[in-house]
Write a structure and sequence with these properties.
Number of strands: 0
Distance between the termini: 55 Å
Largest sheet: none
CATH architecture of the largest domain: Orthogonal Bundle
CATH class of the largest domain: Mainly Alpha
CATH topology of the largest domain: Tetracycline Repressor, domain 2
Strand content: under 5%
Shape: elongated
Radius of gyration: 19 Å
Number of domains: 2
Helix content: over 70%
Amino acid sequence: MSVQERKERERASRERLIVATARELAEQQGWDAVTTRRLAERIEYSQPVLYSHFRGKREIIGAVALEGASEMAAALRAATTGADGPRTRVTALARTYLDFAERNPAVYDAMFQLDGGLAFAAEDTPEPLKDGFAALLESLGEVAGDGVHPGLFTEVFWAALHGLATLTRAGRLPPPEAEQRLELLVDRLAVL
């Protein structure tokens, strides 16, 4: 292995450490607790080393969002692969999405609430974000209904899931009816 290859591997390892530490800190204490000073202390590198990887917190949030989008896409595909029929697939997708948002609130915020400097629904949208949407479209496109654009339907269904996730987390929707809301969403919005 060349010196250059070793340096690149070490750089990638430091970058993963920064992202993992930011994510851990955000999940424990919220994104306000994630500062470059605190991250530098936790990873035991100087702030200039941190800045050699990321220009600031915004880029770190973006990196966490991209990682989260990849994880969510994998979880959605795993939940829907092998599901028997469209209703089962869409229900599994919705349940997995809501579970992901609940289990990873800081990552979910990085993906959809905070400014990570990422373009959505644009030519320069990063691949992990495109893949996250594709994971939704794969199951939802088939239940859009006649004459309904599958991408548009997926956006509306996704917006409904996001609303459920956000309002439930904020305590605006009572938890006992969560399963009824999910069934209502699947039964009324999707053409099964």
